[in-house]
Design a protein that fits this description.
Chain lengths: ~120, ~120
């Protein structure tokens, strides 16, 4: 069975500092991996996804993530934090594939990113 | 971009009543939609996979008679919480899979907050 572990329920960084949100996964087959962002009382917005192409994936808003199979990790980074990055971030995995696309996602518990002025 | 809507955004009901939540893909067709449940400050849990024209597939532990799913068209899936009780209070989020995209990108609705009194 697939699973996702996000280390750190809360991460606090200063504005302009590096953002690093950790995600480790467990999957019995090559996975599809995703990072989503959720602002208060809103749905999820896709930041980026890994789908077995390039291991370094660039997403929206300056975020990127690197798939490391040997470490079963998919950490999310951003070189310089902005106040608007404050939100909840979810890592998700899908390993089953049917009908032309991957199936329902398994989410990590989420990391609340706090940006200090 | 692909847009998914949910209606209503908030609903408050009395214990014992049934509540229907709609999920619509506005600018694409979705043969597959997913229903998730999110408890306060927690992650999303996949409840069921909704397949157009066929029965939904429920995750283990989800009562199919409690959470009725109907996917009657390529743009609409509904979740009906039957005989709702306070423990059913939660944030319900749907997503729709755009078959035209590679690698299964799911587009999420803004969510429906259900409060059962």
């Amino acid at each position: 069975a697939q699973s996702v572990t996000q280390l750190g329920s809360h991460v606090s960084v200063s504005e302009g500092a590096l953002v690093l949100l950790r995600c480790n996964y467990s999957s019995s087959v090559p996975p599809y991996l995703f990072w989503y962002v959720q602002y208060p009382n809103q749905g999820l917005q896709l930041l980026l996804k890994y789908t077995s192409a390039a291991t370094l994936v660039k997403g929206i808003n300056g975020f990127e993530a690197e798939f490391k199979k040997s470490e079963t990790s998919f950490h999310l980074t951003k070189p310089s934090a902005h106040m608007s990055d404050a939100a909840e971030y979810f890592c998700a995995v899908s390993e089953s594939y049917s009908g032309g696309g991957a199936d329902g996602l398994t989410f990590g518990k989420g990391t609340h990113l706090i940006i200090q002025p | 971009g692909a847009v998914v809507s949910q209606h209503p955004s908030r609903v408050i009901c009395k214990s014992g009543t049934s509540v229907k939540i709609e999920c619509r893909s506005l600018d694409f067709q979705a043969t597959t939609m997913f229903w998730y449940r999110q408890f306060p400050k927690q992650s999303l849990m996949l409840m069921a996979t909704s397949n157009e024209g066929s029965k939904a597939t429920y995750e283990q532990g989800v009562e199919k008679d409690k959470f009725l799913i109907n996917h009657a068209s390529l743009t609409l899936s509904t979740l009906t919480v039957t005989s709702a009780h306070p423990e059913d209070s939660s944030f319900y989020i749907c997503s729709a899979r755009d078959e035209g995209y590679s690698y299964n990108e799911q587009f999420f609705g803004p969510g429906t907050r259900l409060t059962v009194l």
